[in-house]
Amino acid sequence: MRGDQIVWRTGKNIETKVIESKIPQGIRWTVLDRFGNSIYLTQERWEHIIASINHPEMKDYEEELKETIQKGSRKQDSLSPQKYRYVKAFDNLPMDNTHIVAIVLFKLQEQEVGEIEFHNFIVTSYQKEIA
Fold first, then answer.
1. 57-81: pLDDT as tens digits
2. For residues 72 and 119, what is the distance between their CA atoms, to the nearest angstrom?
3. Which residues, other chains included, contact 5 with Cβ-Cβ below 8 Å and sequence gap of 6+?
4. Which has fewest Cβ within 10 Å: 13, 74, 84, 98?
5. Which of 3, 25, 27, 33 is closest to 106 using CA atoms?
6. Contact 90, 98 (CB under 8 A)
7. What is the dihedral of CA 67, 73, 78, 81, to 10 degrees?
8. Collapsing DSSP states into helix, strand and coil, what is residue 14?
9. Calpha distance 42→17 (Å, rounded)
10. DSSP assigned state of 58
């Protein structure tokens, strides 16, 4: 275990606290979405996203992925309520793509002392043409 900064929203305030965490090692970065949720991307997930059999077009668009989480629209999956789809338009994407899409899983874990720990992480991301 290691100390991690956990960010959450309570009413209108965003609070942070360093706690012992079971968040996976290898986190590339963490950002807050428009709603104050802390969302992270692991090195393993990034390698999965940019693998040649998945979405190699995302390799040069990591900053746009961060912006998609920070400023994009969000929609909850109706069949898997812990899954959210973030979408944001960009005008610099290749191959007639117009948007970056990120799929994020929201998970909770109770710590030994009864505190709730949030594990909101990007599962995948891709580019898409949306009219």
1. 999 999 999 999 999 999 999 999 9
2. 20
3. 16, 17, 18
4. 13
5. 33
6. yes
7. 50
8. strand
9. 21
10. G
